[in-house]
Amino acid sequence: MSSVKELAASRELLGNLVSRDLRGKYKRSFLGWTWSLVNPLSLAGIYTVVFVVIFKAPSPVGHPSGLKTFPLYLLCGLLPWSFLSNTIGGSVGSLTGNASLVNKVYFPREILVASSTFGWVVSFAIELTVLCVVLLAFGNQVLPWLPVLILLVALQTVFVLGVGLALSVLNVYFRDVQHFMAILLQIWFYATPVIYPISFVQSWVNRHHPAFPVMLLYRANPMVAFVESYHRILYDLRWPAAGDIAWATVASFLSLAIGWAVFRRFEPRLAEEL
How many independent structural domains does the chain possess? Predict the structure, then answer.
């Protein structure tokens, strides 16, 4: 409880750090915040050329929306994935990158991770706003689903914050963590239905391993639940599966609890290690 009170008392510092991160993110950049859209748009363009133009993959059809546009389907999954990837990348180095601040002044160190996370939440919100405008232009009436979308973003923020807390403090003691995460994120990306519908995985399992709980293991990945929920809300215009929302909620708060416990366990010697 004392830790929670410290964090609540430091909310002004948190706001200042988030503001600092936002101002410095694209400082002296001609395109500014437009760069936050360039990476997912370029990836969507590349995957569209590879899968649609070269391999002639059929575009998923939204149900019941009827939308059939592969780039938009990709963006509905790529933006949440980019949020996860960017937040983890920023959180891992949030303590080592602010070593001088940690060594000079006492404050709840979790704030450094939280400020990095909330800075990327702002970027994610801008990207989702642009995506929603494009979806509206294509006839997908996403406005009634915005409250569900906001809830999903909040849950994913809790999830990535927990992951970031654990990785940031472990990276202080073991600098290999940042290099390991670069590899793990690549594997994690292809283990998540971002560039392919989850029905492809189900069909492959039914053909090759129907007797094994492959889908159960596959769905144990929390990002499967998150990405599938984003696809349903934005692309299909229907409620996310109850199981996906339940698992996303459990995984989010479990991640936060474990991340905070790991952070508090290793925090006492942070200044010495930095």
Answer: 1
Tell me the residue range of the domain where 39 lies.
2-273
Q: What's the CA gap between 14 and 161, in Å, rounded?
A: 14
Distance CA 231, CA 197 (A): 9
Q: How far is CA 249 from CA 25, 59, 229, in A?
A: 30, 30, 12
Which segments within 110-166 are labelled E, that is strand?
none
Residue type for position 110: E
Distance CA 82, CA 192 (A): 12
Condensed to tens digits (0 to 9), the pLDDT of residues 169-201 reads: 998 888 888 889 989 999 999 999 998 888 888
Tell me which residue has tokens 């508090």: 264
212: left (phi over 0), alpha (psi -120 to 50) or beta: beta
pLDDT in tens, 40-82: 778 778 888 887 788 777 888 888 988 999 989 999 999 999 9
What pTM does this model have?
A: 0.89
Side-chain-side CA neighbours of 82 within 13 Å: the count stands at 26
